[in-house]
Write a structure and sequence with these properties.
By secondary structure, this protein is an all-alpha fold. It is built from three helices and no strands. The protein has a domain of 42 residues.
């Protein structure tokens, strides 16, 4: 960081360092949580069917939007 003649840190450089530090912290947290999420899902969990035609949500969707049966 640059300093002025009286020893004070230049405001622009301080904000730049602060921004770079925040970006680095965010990136490291994102990579840490991404690795944890991948280990939690097995191959069977990723391939299982999630759409259930007989669920209450699906029935309500078709009923509200006036789709034919």
């Amino acid at each position: 960081m640059k300093t002025k003649g009286n020893g004070k840190i230049v405001r622009r450089d301080f904000l730049r360092v602060l921004g770079v530090g925040a970006a680095a912290a965010t990136t490291s947290v994102a990579f840490a949580s991404e690795g944890h999420a991948q280990t939690k899902n097995s191959s069977d969990e990723r391939r299982k069917a999630r759409y259930k035609a007989d669920s209450a949500d699906v029935k309500a969707y078709y009923r509200v939007n006036n789709y034919p049966r």
